[in-house]
Amino acid sequence: MKKIEQFLGSGFYIATIFLITFISWSFYQDTPPYDFNLYNMLGVFFLILMNTLILIFYKNTLYILPSLFSLLFVLNKSNMNFDTVGSLGFPYLALFTFFIGPVIHLIRFKPKFNKGIFFLGILLIGISYILPLIYLPFDIRAIPVSMMGILYLLIYIFFTSTVKGNLNYLFKVMLFINLLMVFQVFFYLYQGYMNHPELEFYYRIFSGWGRNLGWANINDMCFYIALTFPSYLYFIFKKPKTYLVWFLMILPVVAVILSKSRGGVIGFAAAVIGVILFFWLKGNKKHLTHGLVFLAFTITIFYIGRQAFHIWYEFFIESLGEDFNDFTTGRITIYKTGWEVFKTYPIFGGGWLSLQNLNPGSRLFMYHSTLFQALAAMGTFGLIALMVHYFQVFKYMVIDLTLEKSLFLIGYIASQVHGLIDNVQYAVPYSVLIVIFLAVFETSTKTTSFELINRRYHFIEANEKG
Q1: Based on the domain organization, do 360 and 261 belong to the same domain?
Q2: Residue 187: enclosing H or E segment and its boundaries?
Q3: What is the pLDDT of residue 192?
Q4: Are residues 96 and 117 in the same domain?
Q5: What is the domain count for the chain?
Q6: Which end of the chain has fewer CB atoms within 10 angstroms, the N or the C?
């Protein structure tokens, strides 16, 4: 069991899980007689089974991070619901297998309850989710989504009580999440390229898939890429002689640009600016030298493929529309709707189905903005709950600033910038990621100070000279 645990703690295991996730996700065509892809569902069940077995046999829940996070990004069926897969009873078997793991883990290992540093903010957000149910007309559809805030709280408590944090492990997972997102974007572009042989090369690349990505759309990909992008810096600073990571950093840059996501570019630009400032303020001579080489290499690649930027600019000009509402893809109208809902229910909001009820049958579900989502769905109370959560996060991260905290803040702020114009803070995968990230941070005892990085750099430099 010790050897297996060592394997579960390795980068090879993390890479394997995310590779299996990508392969499973890449199967999207229906496999008759079923109205879904059987191989994708087998991949989902494999991840759930891995998750359950680890919870049953190991006390430290850190090792389920790769399989648990993979489950957030593995589904590849547009407009999938329980009716889609109900013919096999798959969702019931999968959910039973998924929940039996935590139950057996709690019974077997009897962890001590730990409410955690961020408990208050997450609790208030959970309460804000369900309060509108008290006074709004009963709607069975509102119950599952309104309970999500409580689910995030339970996930947070479970991990603060069971995980033995390891930030090196966490940043490996974040790096592979980033690479998974990048390769999903590339697969999306490849499918569009193959479907449009009549177009010129660069137009084929930008043509896209013409469908969503199963668990999300292309815009969502970009803020997860921005959130996890600073993880590359962790390994650059921890291992000064690591050169491969520098070149891997080019991939998310290319993926975001080719995605044609305007909001994605804004959020990712915030991450890139944060990374550059971090290098400038905390980098040593070797980091800055490598950074300049990386920048020159990236500029060269972009110069060679400059036609792509011309097409992107054409797309941007076309997207301007006749007014600002057209430019924002109807977001101004959605924000005005959210504001009207808030004025009607100013204290606790109009609930999580308020936009769907105003636009029945449409794909509109959230208000494409963290601010308007909080106000419209959860009212003033929801906004206060969110501010408490933000305060706790920034207070913890800023005090005794370390390498890991700095990099988390860069990605977190970048994703929140994207959240000003898109569904980020309250997106299910994002919320799950954040509460688990925070739990791992606060239960980790080993962090990396900037003084330690400088000592390591000077030691390597002295050895190279001597």
Answers
A1: yes
A2: helix 167-195
A3: 85
A4: no
A5: 2
A6: C
Between CA 407 and CA 178 the distance in angstroms is 14
Lowest mean pLDDT among 243-252, 272-281, 318-327: 318-327
Residues 1 and 14 in one domain: yes
Task: Give 377-422 as a DSSP string.
Answer: HHHHHHHHHHHHHHHHHHHHHHTT--HHHHHHHHHHHHHHHHTTSS
Residue in this structure with the two tokens 């603060």, named with its chain if needed? 160
Please state the separation of Cα 57 from the chain's center in Å: 28
Count of other CB atoms within 10 angstroms of residue 32: 7
pLDDT digits (tens, 9 = 90+) for 233-269: 999 888 767 778 888 999 999 899 888 888 888 899 9
Of 81, 110, 139, which residue sits at a domain end? 110
- Torsion (CA) 399, 112, 59, 101 in degrees, nearest 10: -110
Give the Cα separation of 38 and 448 in Å (integer): 44
Same domain membership, residue 299 and residue 397? yes
Contact 72, 215 (CB under 8 A): yes
Give the structural domain span for 406.
113-466
Report residue 44: phi and psi, to 5°.
Answer: -60, -45
Tell me the C-alpha distance between 370 and 383, whole Å: 9
Residue 157 predicted with pLDDT over 80:
yes
> What is the CB neighbour count within 10 angstroms for residue 182?
22
Residues in the chain: 466
Residues 141, 46 share a domain:
no
∠ CA 418-420-423, rounded to 5°: 70
Q: Which two tokens stand for residue 348?
A: 């606790």
Model pLDDT for residues 382-417, shown as the tens digit of each residue: 999 999 999 999 999 999 889 999 999 999 999 999
- pLDDT above 60 (res 46): yes
* Dist CA 421 CA 172 (whole Å): 29
* Torsional sign, CA 47, 52, 55, 61: positive
> How far apart are the C-alpha atoms of 34 and 85, rounded to whole Å?
7
Please identify which residue in the block is written with the tokens 């494409």: 368
Tell me which residue of 185, 122, 204 sits closest to 158, measured CA to CA.
122
